[in-house]
Structures are given as structure tokens and as C-alpha cells.
Design a protein that fits this description.
Immunoglobulin-like; 9 helices
């Protein structure tokens, strides 16, 4: 799920994207002459490129930092599209286009008068439609991003803890009871993230409901994806909330550490599911 960040993050990405594309436009011969009123020199074009590309790269870095690699990259492409569209229409319909038309050679007007079948200028309604799309698309895109649910690891119910010397944060993906798989086994998806310095020291990590009694049976391995790890746990038939959620971690140098997490705190819905299942098993004949 996408992190729910302050709207200023989106404004920053859009501003960096607009700035990068504007500088790259200045570096081109045609757009540079239009925007500057004269053709940019070779040194100026080189400087505009050296400034424009890093701004686009910085916009991508901000997206990855705020929304992780997968969400951030998609978001970056979305804001690049919005910025490029805005800049294209701004250049096409900016007042200097009209001014340059008025200052054009009178022979152009004369030539136009000799062409009675020339195509009429675009209707004002089409321009209004394009301007509406230009304003509405970024606003709609930003609203959808604002309404997107936050990433589980950034929600207020995410649990922080420590195993051995390493700090971590853990959360359930969906705040709902375990899903029943196709084979009838209830499963629950958890996400976990260690601190950036911790990841450099950790070789593997496992998660399991109920205490593991050996490293070979430490549970489901937490698969790493970018800055986070995740695992889909099968809920044992006789598991109770009191059994806890056990995190086992092995360092790159071979040390093994364990910690127990309260299922009621990490996943209240799973705790209620276990309690309800336990009551039904007690009353069953």
C-alpha cells in the first residue's frame, strides 16, 4: 500500500519535475529560442542539460525515499507525465506565441489571404477543453494519491521492537482476520522492516506463530523486497493468541536471536479469529 505522506511531498516532486523539464526545454534549439527570445549558446545548452537531468533524478530519489521503490517509481512516472503535459501546453499557448505571431513578417498575412480554403483556427471550445484537462488531470491524480491507503509499515498501528541489537517495525498487511486459502488453511500476511544499518548485519529472518524449537523449524522466511521483508504465515490448527508471534534472526556472523511479539498488539483481528476458533472447538462434540 502507498504511504500517506504530506501533500508537500507531491508538490516537491511536481516542482522538481517541472524545473527539470523546463531546463531541458531551454537546452533545445527551438524551445530555447522561444522562451529566451534568442537562441541559447552551446555553453548555455550544456549548462541547462547539466541542471535539468539531475532535477529529474532528484524527483525520482524523493519518490523512492517517501514511497519506497515500487510505489515511488510509479508515482515518479505519473508526476513526470503531469509535468511534461503542463509544460507542453504552457509553451504552446503562452502569450509569447501570440506576440511572435504579431511580429512576424507581413508576407505571411498576405500569403494567408491568398488561401481562401485555409483551415480555420481552432475553436475556443477546444482550447477551453485542453485547459480544463491540463488543470483537472493533475488535480485528479493528486487527489487519488491523497486518498490511497498508507503503507502498513507507516500506519499508526505498526509495532516497533528490537531483536538482539536490531530495531524493527512490523505490521499486518490488512487489518482483517486471516484469509482461508484454497486448501482450507488460514493464512496471514505480515510485513517487517529493520533499520537500514541493521539490514547490513542480518543474513536471514523468520516469522512463526508459536515458539520454534530449532533453527530448521524457525517458521516462514521473511523475503526481502527493497527496504522491507514480508511473509505469508499459515495459522496452526491449535494456535492461541497466547502462543505469540516469534521472530528469529540470524546475523551474517552466525549469531541467532529471538523475540516474541504479542499477537493481540500486532494483529488484533488475528487474535479475535484465534479466540473465536478456540471457542468453537470447545463446544464441538
Amino acid at each position: 500500500m502507498m504511504p500517506d505522506l504530506f501533500i508537500g511531498w507531491h508538490v516537491l516532486v511536481l516542482a522538481l519535475s517541472l524545473g527539470g523539464f523546463a531546463l531541458l526545454a531551454l537546452a533545445s534549439e527551438r524551445e530555447g529560442r522561444l522562451l529566451l527570445g534568442r537562441g541559447p549558446s552551446a555553453q548555455q545548452r550544456r549548462a541547462f542539460r547539466l541542471l535539468g537531468w539531475p532535477l529529474l533524478a532528484l524527483a525520482w530519489a524523493v519518490c523512492v525515499r517517501g514511497w519506497f521503490g515500487h510505489f515511488g517509481t510509479v508515482l515518479w512516472f505519473g508526476w513526470l507525465t503531469m509535468a511534461a503535459t503542463a509544460l507542453v501546453f504552457a509553451i504552446a499557448y503562452w502569450p509569447w506565441r501570440k506576440q511572435s505571431g504579431r511580429q512576424a513578417d507581413g508576407s505571411i498575412t498576405a500569403a494567408a489571404n491568398r488561401l481562401p480554403d485555409a483551415a480555420p483556427p481552432p475553436a475556443r471550445g477546444w482550447r477551453s477543453l485542453w485547459l480544463l484537462l491540463l488543470v483537472g488531470l493533475p488535480l485528479g491524480f493528486g487527489w487519488q494519491l491523497h486518498q490511497a491507503p498508507p503503507h502498513p509499515l507507516l500506519r499508526s498501528d505498526a509495532v516497533t521492537g528490537q531483536v538482539g541489537p536490531w530495531r524493527f517495525v512490523i505490521a499486518e498487511e490488512e487489518r482483517e482476520a486471516p484469509e482461508i486459502s484454497a486448501i482450507g488453511v488460514p493464512v496471514k500476511h505480515f510485513m517487517l522492516r529493520f533499520c537500514d544499518e541493521c539490514e547490513l548485519q542480518i543474513a536471514e529472518a523468520w516469522l512463526q506463530i508459536r515458539q520454534p524449537y530449532s533453527l530448521q523449524a524457525a517458521g516462514m522466511r521473511l523475503q526481502r523486497e527493497g527496504r522491507k521483508r514480508e511473509a505469508m504465515l499459515a495459522v496452526p490448527p491449535a494456535a492461541r493468541a497466547e502462543d505469540g508471534l516469534w521472530l528469529t534472526v540470524r546475523s551474517r556472523s552466525g549469531e541467532v536471536y529471538q523475540t516474541i511479539l504479542d499477537i493481540r498488539q500486532v494483529s488484533p483481528a488475528t487474535a479475535r479469529f484465534l479466540a473465536a476458533r478456540g471457542r468453537s472447538q470447545e463446544v464441538a462434540p
